[in-house]
Specification:
It is a single chain. With 411 residues, this protein is of the alpha/beta class. It has a single domain (1-411), classed as Thiolase/Chalcone synthase (Peroxisomal Thiolase, Chain A, domain 1). It has helices at 20-29, 64-68, 72-88, 111-124, 133-137, 141-150, 165-178, 196-204, 243-248, 277-290, 308-322, 335-338, 345-359, and strands at 5-13, 35-36, 49-50, 100-105, 156-157, 184-191, 234-242, 255-264, 299-301, 330-332, 361-362, 385-386, 391-398, 402-409. The strands form three sheets. The chain has a ten-stranded mixed sheet with strand order 5-4-6-7-1-8-14-13-9-10, sandwiched between helices. It is globular and about 65 Å long. The two termini are 21 Å apart.
Length: 411
């Protein structure tokens, strides 16, 4: 038995905003959330900026005792989940708890907690470690906390596929409902990797932009003058719901989830397949599951990280999948404004897609000033565009060769 699955709630915490309405306004304005890092002293690092969640506090968002026992990434996740649940209007107290679940992943997990407690271990000894060290640090803490807070006793897993995490979690939640294993799923991803080890590790990978003189213009997907991606943090959470269930309770519906592609490059631990083999097959699988013709797709939210290898490989993959129709697609990169939120990226980008479908407006790819000759598609440069789109793909690709593509449609 297969069933239709729709999106009925959205929630986010990210470098542009602490809520979906403010996030949407920032996207349409083409505003950058990238700025100098304030979380720690970056003077010893080659890169001094990131897509940091500004002025973060849990006051007024989470109960103080609970917030104290959550890593920063889990605070983001629960706050975004609470917004999405409120937005959906669903009352979980009236639902069968075994038919409601949570699939919220993280690429890294509680890096803040790990670094904090490791410092205590080195300076004060293992006997002074917090009993919450492991519960705060583990990558399933966010989804576990969400299920506890909202009494969700159905399917509950935490995907960890690097930068594909949130998209894979949404795809898994989609299939869980489609195959009649649940009626409602909280899904997406969360990340808080802007720490000394996080920043230093990505610098060591030679993956980050070093545009310290102009952080807001550092994330520039598909631009010839890009020099790497910008590290970001936050959470993007969606409420997925069985269509008839949503209709019965009079829920507003943003869009329908129709397909999910999941492949591997089997190529390199960090570099994408040079011919976009895995990425192209993920898109093909998502389109086929959705039951679409390839020429019917009218918008694609690119992984678009602002790295030379990644942008070129994705552009090549899009051309492989769509042929001449690739030049008719509108494409944009949310990361141009928020940076790369790692395991949360697919969540905040799926939210952007849902809003673009609902509102008939496409957010731009900012900082696209000198297009790379190898990236010659329509990336909606610098200004939002009014265009009604009905069939949308959202791509997420991660270290390890993980590829995810989600097919979202108007309803």
């Amino acid at each position: 038995m297969t069933r239709r699955v729709v999106v009925t709630g959205l929630g986010t915490v990210n470098p542009l905003a602490h809520s979906v309405p403010d996030y949407w306004a920032g996207l349409l304005a083409g505003r950058s959330g990238v700025a100098p890092i304030t979380l720690f002293d970056t003077s010893a690092f080659k890169a001094h900026f990131a897509g940091e969640v500004k002025n973060w506090t849990t006051e007024g968002k989470l109960e103080p005792k609970l917030a104290k026992h959550l890593d920063r990434y889990s605070q983001f996740a629960l706050t975004a989940a609470n917004e999405a649940i409120k937005d959906s209007g669903i009352a979980f107290s009236k639902e069968d708890p075994f038919r409601c679940g949570s699939m919220v992943g993280s690429g890294i997990g509680g890096l803040f907690t790990w670094e904090e407690q490791h410092a205590i271990h080195l300076t004060r000894g293992p006997g002074r470690l917090s009993p919450f060290t492991i519960p705060k640090m583990i990558a399933n803490a966010a989804t576990g906390t969400i299920s506890i807070e909202h009494n969700l006793m159905g399917p509950n897993t935490a995907v960890a596929t690097a930068c594909s995490t949130a998209a894979h979690a949404i795809g898994d939640a989609f299939h869980t409902i489609k195959w009649d294993l649940a009626d409602v799923m909280v899904s997406g991803g969360a990340e808080a990797g802007i720490t000394p080890m996080g920043l230093g590790g990505f610098i060591a990978c030679r993956a980050l932009s070093m545009r310290n003189d102009d952080p807001p213009r550092a994330s520039r997907p598909f631009d010839k003058d890009r020099d790497g991606f910008v590290l970001g943090e936050g959470a993007g959470i969606l409420i997925l719901e069985e269509y008839e269930h949503a209709k019965r309770r009079g829920a507003k519906i943003y869009c329908e989830v129709l397909g999910s592609g999941n492949t591997a490059d089997a190529n390199h631990i960090t570099a994408p397949h040079p011919e976009g083999a895995g990425a192209s097959r993920a898109m093909i699988n998502a389109v086929k599951e959705a039951g679409w013709n390839f020429n019917d797709v009218d918008y694609l939210n690119a992984h678009g990280t602002s790295t030379e290898l990644g942008d070129k490989a994705e552009t090549l993959a899009v051309k492989k999948v769509f042929g001449s129709h690739a030049y008719k697609l509108a494409i944009s990169s949310t990361k141009s404004m928020v940076g790369h939120l790692l395991g949360a990226s697919g969540g905040v980008e799926a939210i952007a897609c849902a809003l673009m479908i609902r509102n008939g407006l496409l957010h731009p790819t900012i900082n696209l000033e000198t297009p790379d000759p190898d990236c010659d598609l329509d990336y909606v440069p610098n200004k939002a565009r009014e265009r009604r789109v009905r069939k949308v793909l959202s791509n997420s690709f991660g270290f390890g060769g993980h590829n995810a593509s989600l097919a979202l449609g108007a309803i």
